[in-house]
Specification:
about 280 residues; mainly alpha; about 65% helix; globular
Length: about 280
């Protein structure tokens, strides 16, 4: 573990000194935006290639909504791509630039000093996840209120989402629904910048899978959020405990899709292991 930490520390120093010449403003703004944007594009590359070509055919058996977006309309996909670039590139950069003085004053996203230990990393990520879930759930519920839904409507144009739809929204929703819940944890915990970057990568990969429209073996289930896009109700969070607390899980949990909300450790599609008829017998 110590050897791994030393390697990580050396790699970070190479990035900090070699790539950004110890320019704190540059690495916290341009560096943070570049990491997020590149990660999101790479995570979505394979999914987008599959969605656009409809190949390989064998992955079709893992698609949740079999009759939708396979292959996806190219024009609609390009619109999503442009919005992703706008939000993750322009909007995120604007946010990082205007928030830089606050970050520096508060002492968060530090670039110097030792990297956190594995134990510290686990604690930070636990806090990040809880804060992100609260922000995401309640923010999402607010956006579904009639007086605020106009800011969320764009995201729900996709009733059968693809990976890039994760950030397909207007700037208001992107700021309050994406940026604030995700950045709250690292800010409050005064995390090292590399920890904030790792958190950013994990979130972007997870929301890509969540919106992918596929229930792929050994990856967490996208059934819940896919159901939300299809019905516009139920399953507003990702960890389920707030949905259970407020009873917003029931419309989803009482369906066959709710029975399929688990990590599949088999190459057999969950549609076959938990078919409609079997589910109805247990309901």
């Amino acid at each position: 573990m110590d050897s791994l930490r030393r390697t990580a520390q050396s790699t970070w120093q190479s990035i900090w000194i070699g790539l950004f010449a110890e320019d704190e403003f540059l690495i916290k703004t341009v560096g943070t935006v570049a990491v997020g944007l590149l990660c999101f594009l790479l995570a979505n590359f394979i999914f987008l290639l599959i969605d656009l070509t409809g190949r390989p055919q064998w992955i079709y058996k893992y698609k949740i909504q079999e009759d939708r977006n396979f292959p996806v309309d190219r024009k609609r996909a390009f619109d999503v791509f442009k919005t992703a670039l706008l939000n993750l590139g322009v909007i995120n950069l604007f946010f990082m630039v205007i928030s830089y003085p606050i970050l520096r004053w508060y002492g968060t996203f530090r670039c110097t000093g030792p990297l956190p230990s594995f134990g510290e990393l686990v604690i930070h990520f636990f806090v990040f996840r809880i804060l992100e879930e609260f922000g995401n759930y309640y923010g999402h519920r607010i956006l579904h209120m009639p007086q605020f839904y106009k800011y969320h409507k764009k995201h729900h144009e996709w009733t059968a989402p693809i990976g890039m739809v994760a950030v397909y929204c207007g700037p208001v929703e992107h700021f309050f629904g994406n940026i604030l819940p995700v950045s709250a944890g690292p800010f409050i915990m005064k995390s090292h910048l590399i920890v904030a970057w790792l958190w950013e990568l994990l979130v972007l990969i997870s929301v890509t899978i969540e919106h992918s429209g596929y229930h792929i073996p050994f990856l967490f289930s996208a059934e819940g959020h896919d159901y939300h896009h299809r019905t516009f109700t139920s399953w507003y969070g990702t960890m389920a405990f707030l949905d259970v607390l407020h009873g917003t899980d029931k419309p989803f949990s009482n369906t066959v899709h709710g029975k399929r909300q688990f990590i599949s450790c088999s190459f057999t599609p969950v549609k076959e292991s938990v078919p409609e008829k079997m589910s109805s017998k247990h309901e």
